[in-house]
Amino acid sequence: MTRSAELSDTRTGGSDRLDRLRARLNDRWIALGVPLLLIYARVVEGMVVSEHQLTLVRLAGFDSAHPSGSQGPLVNLEHWDAQWYHSIASHGYVSGPDAAFYPGYPLVSALLHRVSFGAVSTNAALFIVSWGSLVGLALIFESFCRRMDINRNLSFVTLFVTLFGPGSCFLISWYPLSLFLLLSCVTFVYLAKGQEWTAAVVAGAATSLSPVAVALSIALAIRFLFRRGPATLTTRLAKSTLSVWGIVAYYAYCQVRYGSLLEPVRAQKDWYVKAIVPFTYLPTMVHSLFSEHFDRATFVSLGLNLLCEAVALALIVRLAVRLARREVTGDQRTFSVFTIASLVIPAATVVPYATTFRAEGFARLSGASVGFNVEAVRGMRGRATLTTFALLWFLLGLMGQILFSGGWFT
Questions:
Q1: Helix or strand or coil: residue 357?
Q2: What is the pLDDT of residue 297?
Q3: Average of pLDDT values for 360-364?
Q4: What is the spatial distance between Cα 405 and Cα 387, in angstroms, rounded to a whole number?
Q5: Between the ranges 78-82, 100-104, 281-285, where is the mean pLDDT highest?
Q6: I want to staple 263 with a disulfide (CB 3.0 to 4.6 A). Which of 136, 146, 207, 254 is the partner?
Q7: What φ, ψ does residue 390 adopt, rounded to 5°?
Q8: Of all helices (H) and strands (E), which one includes residue 135?
Q9: What's the pLDDT score for residue 5?
Q10: Average of per-residue pLDDT across 119-146
């Protein structure tokens, strides 16, 4: 090969690398636009709902006895359990009921407030951690999908339906779910790189956010303990234990603070009606839809919740069949176990409020939405089906935001 030909090949290779770099940067910018659009859209929606709620109630034919009296673009993002996280970030664990809320999210927010020497208020810190996690999720998600063998177009669709789905109202509120989704993605990126110790540490951090996060630890423990390889049993057990360090540390703190390891469970003892088998309360919900005399808003909330639960159950069955047939292996097998566990773990509980139920389906799909949406999108066939699903999920997300911001969610 002549010198000129070598130089030409070098220039061509350099040009190809530059083109790939530009394509990656373009993908990152597109991905970054999704959470920014979500934040803008949900804030505007919350403001519209809060300022014109009575008008929206009448136009929709709903009858809400307790419309939101608050106004402003952010105030509707501070409803319900968000106030507990704010209190813990501001004052720590003061009373027994505080123990029901895990410390990871308020702790990170409080640290941000303190390292800024008060320049960042606690309110702002809670939003920064939540919204910043969404931005980080978008940037990591592209790498995550590439390592999970999801093509470029599907990865954008998946990110969109993840962030604009039925539970997206929680993702920009004072809730730990955005941070949980980010840590879930980071965990699987490290797994794909073969850095299992780091993945276990990140998964352990996630368990300090919510009890549902142990789904991640369960998936990793199955991988570490039962996968063939040269690692000793001690090493396997150490990795598995490391993947739950967050929740173990929190329960140890509860022993010191409250004198009881099980204080978080005790604090939630009146929240839930337990079912021995997950999803066995679905018939009760169906019966309620047709037999109780609900106002229309409650009927819509229950109906949407029931739809979310049914879709989640269908996905669990499909993944279980694929696992039983050994159609998935390696990282995808671990990811499938994570998705199933994160949907099933809270599925044996329902929260009763008067004659109805809280919309647990929205919250569950919000907590498990990375696994849920990746597997749902990957299992679809045809552009029309995918477009229909994305549109439906977007509309359900819009309805969930209205129910949440308008004070109808519970």
A1: strand
A2: 63
A3: 64
A4: 27
A5: 100-104
A6: 254
A7: -60, -45
A8: helix 122-147
A9: 54
A10: 88
Tell me: the pLDDT tens digits for 227-253?
A: 877 888 899 999 999 999 999 999 999
350 neighbors 360 (Cβ within 8 angstroms): yes
Reading the block at residue 346, the tokens are: 């809270």
Per-residue pLDDT band at 379 (split at 50, 70, 90): confident
Residue with tokens 């935001």, as numbered in its chain: 401
CB atoms under 10 Å from CB of 392, counted, come to 15
285, two tokens: 């919900």
SS3 content of the chain, % helix, strand, coil (to 5): 75, 0, 25
Burial class (CB in 10 A: 0-12, 13-18, 19+), 181: buried
In contact, 74 and 50? CB cutoff 8 Å: no
Cα 26 from Cα 192, distance rounded (Å): 23
Contacts (Cβ under 8 Å, ≥6 apart) of 25: none
Contact of 343 with 145, CB cutoff 8 Å: no
User: Under a CB-based contact definition with an 8 Å cutoff, are residues 137 and 182 in contact?
Assistant: yes
How many CB atoms within 10 Å of residue 355? 10
The amino acid that residue 331 corresponds to is D
Largest interatomic CA distance in the chain? 86
Are 71 and 53 within 8 A, CB to CB? no
Distances in whole angstroms, Cα of residue 77 to Cα of each of 11, 40, 47, 50, 71: 52, 13, 10, 11, 11
Give me the chain's average pLDDT, please: 79
Pairing of strands 356-357, 352-353: antiparallel
Looking at 161-175, 230-244, 246-260, 362-376, which range is the least confident one? 362-376
Q: Are 158 and 54 in contact (CB under 8 A)?
A: no
The three-state secondary structure class of 325 is coil
Q: Assess contact for 362 and 410: CB atoms under 8 A.
A: no
Please tell me the pTM assigned to this model: 0.84
Helices (H) and strands (E) in the chain, counts: 18, 4
- Read out DSSP for 194-215? T-HHHHHHHHHHHTTT-GGGHH
Closest CA to 173 of 81, 252, 301, 92: 81
Q: Measured between alpha carbons, how far is 409 from 253 in angstroms, rounded to an integer?
A: 32
